[in-house]
Fold each of these.
Amino acid sequence: MPHKSASVKPIPDIVVGRLPFYLRTLRSLAAEGRDITSSLELGTRLGLTSAQIRKDLSYFGEFGKQGLGYNIPFLVGQLRRILKVDRVWEVVLVGAGDLGRAIAHYHGFHDRGFEIRMVFDSDPAKIGQSLADFKIGDMETMVDKVRAAKIRIAMLAVPATAAQKVADLLVKAGAKAILNYAPTALVVPKGVTVQNIDPAAHMQHMTYYLES
Amino acid sequence: MPHKSASVKPIPDIVVGRLPFYLRTLRSLAAEGRDITSSLELGTRLGLTSAQIRKDLSYFGEFGKQGLGYNIPFLVGQLRRILKVDRVWEVVLVGAGDLGRAIAHYHGFHDRGFEIRMVFDSDPAKIGQSLADFKIGDMETMVDKVRAAKIRIAMLAVPATAAQKVADLLVKAGAKAILNYAPTALVVPKGVTVQNIDPAAHMQHMTYYLES
DNA sequence: CAGTGTGAAGAGGTTCACAGCG
DNA sequence: CGCTGTGAACCTCTTCACACTG
């Protein structure tokens, strides 16, 4: 029987997934000029219970003051550290269609820790053209350029039919996180994280609850 | 947002949320010319266990044949019926910035049960302009026009600062489902469903797992 | 005999409730 | 007194395992 390693309680992924929303809400409170909040107020704003907020935060430390609440700038700093967005990550975008262009023009990423630094597409008509501040590169040189720049985060905005092939290339280029906008599931090696964005799936989730 | 009912055991919201992905995968299999599949194959494609697939489907009926598997066209039809996307829903889009324009140009919604029929914006410079097949309408007439058309689904692509006000108007117009692209939580009355899309939150979820 | 459907067991996540501290 | 942090209880979801069937 192999020995079990000392049980280090891992933090549930579902908890990690809520932290960006806590951070988002706290920054919104800060923008309103607030300095202190409580688990109750945060929960109300987020549609969660105060107990859940406290329990989630307690996985990472003791950030509040009993009887008082949470200092907003301090908690923002802690969450940015925990989520590793107390820096700006360089990102590669693959796909320069309508969606890719909208992503490239979106200015909301920088403030939350991300900056697109390269854009690639396979369409010869697009290669060499300008998009936002970038020149669209070709797929043949993509792997080398991404690897050379040590970029580890990718956004994938190509058709579903091409998504897996491009994902394989991104992994080869050293990507460790892929935000997948293509409506298809990606297979990636262990150690690579994928998050999917599928608006139509969300829509279909909602129609279930509609009266016909 | 689980919908409660006193008499019948409600189907878990998390199960409903997976159905669109089952449907998506089944249609992809159908497009490959396949006619039969199994819970094992579906699970592999989706990164889920076969038991989960079977259990989820069993909430809605007995769709498979023991020893054989699932008939793909039949199961596609059942899922479309369950999710109420065996029809095309009319949708109103509010917000004609970069994101709104990308959404309006995206052709992937129709095939999955949705068709944008109206677009509105508050920017006088945009009102009256054309976007895809539509003329951008003003916010003042939005409520009446949406109500008159009996549209119950909205996509919200306005800045976070305006999102709640617009959501209130949409509810007043009779919206029962809102796909919220703004990075802020919406407060809506019971009976209205909201689904949120926040790519930056997904990105921050992934950075947690990256080595610094 | 391959693969579904499903109770039961097991894991995992949420809420409770209260000690403890500012 | 107000609000956090946290074991314990509770509840929900997932996985197991097997009877059953085409």
Amino acid sequence: MVKLTRFETAECPVARSLEAIGDGWALLIIRDAFDGIRRFGEFQRSLGMAKNILSARLRNLVAHGIFEIVPASDGSAYQEYVLTEKGRGLFAVIIGLRQWGEGFFYAEGEAHSLMLDREHGQALQPLQVRAADGRVLGPQECLRVAAQSGG
Amino acid sequence: MVKLTRFETAECPVARSLEAIGDGWALLIIRDAFDGIRRFGEFQRSLGMAKNILSARLRNLVAHGIFEIVPASDGSAYQEYVLTEKGRGLFAVIIGLRQWGEGFFYAEGEAHSLMLDREHGQALQPLQVRAADGRVLGPQECLRVAAQSGG
DNA sequence: TCGTTATGGTTTTGAAATGAAACCAGTTGT
DNA sequence: ACAACTGGTTTCATTTCAAAACCATAACGA
């Protein structure tokens, strides 16, 4: 049912990641999950997406171990979708997308939602790619090398 | 031609980012660009995707200011697609997707391509979300607040 | 307890996107 | 001059999307 080979070779971890995630809707579902959304109906209202598409996305995300289904936390007979450890591993990616959007798609002073350090209510640092010794690296300072065992 | 309103409200920067990027193919194109790929044919061979789809994605990415078209660097009459400043701003996102894939989709010792600090040939640090004071933050330590002017 | 509404989907169906292949114009190499 | 390469566009069959209708179960209210 779930199509597994859109990005064929997938010797590249980026491709495997995108394959598992599926599409942009899935990333918005994951974003909502980080904001505390857990129920089917909540996701649907928050995202305004068709129920059949949401259903398919959630099914795919569960199949890929990004979400898991748990009994509803309010004691009702319904179920909830919560991020697994693997799913929570996408936090930096979501933050990266958020910061990129903030930096390039909003006019100075234009309103948008904001992600804060809960403890101090301060904005987050911009994500930085760093070398082992702590140097901040740009694309030019990095080098992709072909497949190696033991990476 | 380019559909602009897939994720409707887009008061959220994550949604605006995904809207601009378009889909997973686009992220793989951007990944390839970080690896130095510049020509249409190179992208097409690297990704194994249909030429009409590649054409449409590149057109969209150029329209969103993520790529720009420049004269070929080898002096021929052809053109090349290179990342703009905005496009290069996605570096952390690509690295995030790569690290997530490395962490969750490969068996111990399974071969995959690797991104290194070019200067020392060392692996990169894992991306971390940090507060202004430098603390590493998980999803639970962050709080999304609704639209504010002056973010 | 019975009817009503909310929840969490699935099915149906027309519209849109995808992708393989054929085609084509301009460029480069011989 | 001719052949091959580059960088696409067009065509068309297939797949996916998305809106709406539908439906079963659960919760709620009187």
